[in-house]
Amino acid sequence: MKHKNNQALFDYWNAIRAGRPAPRRGEIEPGDIRRILPYVFILERKDRDTYRFRLAGTGLCSTYGMEFRGHNMLSMWSDDCAENLKEALDDVAANATVSVVEYTAATNDGREVTFEMILLPLAHEDGSMTRVLGAAVPIDQFAWIGDRLLARQWIDRLRRLDPERMPKAPRPAEVIARRILAERPPVAVASIASHASRKPPLRSERSYLRLVKTTPAAREDRG
User: Fold this and answer.
1) Does the structure show a pLDDT above 70 at 222?
2) Nearest to 73, CA basis, from 48, 52, 58
3) What are the distances in angstroms from CA 94 to CA 11, 90, 97, 164?
4) What are phi and psi of 24, to 5 degrees?
5) Average pLDDT over residues 15-26
6) What pLDDT score does 185 carry?
7) What is this structure's pTM?
8) Is 178 exposed, middle or buried (0-12, 13-18, 19+ CB in 10 A)?
9) Which helix (H) or strand (E) holds 109?
């Protein structure tokens, strides 16, 4: 994934699913992903031709200049792209795969912006795989984004990935440990056992203080 928000969503989803094909909808805590929440959405699969937005973040709605809730995601694409996306969504829901979509959206006056979208399987409370958790983030950061309506879009690249073969994010404790080691190399410290076995020094070996009488500086200057 190119965008850190999509990587963050995948890492969160992967952590809470805990080895299962997908986490349940009720396990998603918005507060845990508040930083990326504006671009997160959840789709509900009604049938093969209908994946409706159950919710969509404010950032995504602002970027497109429209409210997504209740809209069918597949209606936003031309016929050939809609068919490719439909197959990807079906694979996400049926086989618990992960899809990453790179696409371009354009305004009526010819401006274009590149997006990256991730699609993750999400189970309903009854266990059925009828939800899709996703995020769509603009890769390009143009000042006009959000001021002009994105009228059409097309897929540039679509990848279906097996989550079991994707790199796992290190746990927070591992990240902290690696950072500490990188900043300060470990120092060898004698073990407790070695200190316990060490014998006290003999009287002749013990250190002591010795008073040394020195000549005042003034006398030395005279000499």
Assistant:
1) no
2) 52
3) 21, 6, 8, 16
4) -90, 155
5) 93
6) 44
7) 0.73
8) exposed
9) none
